[in-house]
């Protein structure tokens, strides 16, 4: 096994910057915001048209 000094350790770059868990969290956040928008829009439309049933 090769031993690296501190300068070499600082130069190590690894992994992808966008992981699958980060992508999954982003998709779920957008989906949740979309659902909230639908609920608010539907509630506003029902309130304006006075159609509650």
Terminal Cα span: 72 Å
Beta content: under 5%
Biggest sheet character = none
Low-pLDDT runs of 5+ residues are none
Q: Could you tell me the number of beta strands?
A: 0
Radius of gyration (CA) equals 24 Å
Number of helices: 2
Q: Provide mean pLDDT, rounded.
A: 88
What is the approximate shape? Answer: rod-shaped
Spell the H/E element sequence: HH
Coarse structural class: mainly alpha
What share of the residues lie within helices? 55-70%
Describe this structure in words.
The chain is mostly helical and 53 residues long. The chain has two helices and no strands. It has helices spanning 6-10, 20-49. It starts with 5 loop residues before the first helix and ends with a helix.
What distinguishing features does this structure have?
66% helix; mainly alpha; single chain; 2 helices; 53 residues; rod-shaped
Question: Helices and strands in order, then pairings?
Answer:
Elements (H helix, E strand, L loop, with lengths): L5 H5 L9 H30 L4
Task: Please summarize what this structure is.
The protein is mostly helical and 53 residues long. Helices cover 66% and strands 0% of the residues.
């Amino acid at each position: 096994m090769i031993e690296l000094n501190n300068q070499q350790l600082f130069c190590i770059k690894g992994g992808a910057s966008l992981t699958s868990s980060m992508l999954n969290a982003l998709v779920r956040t957008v989906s949740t915001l979309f659902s909230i928008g639908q609920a608010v829009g539907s509630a506003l439309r029902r309130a304006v048209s006075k159609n509650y049933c």
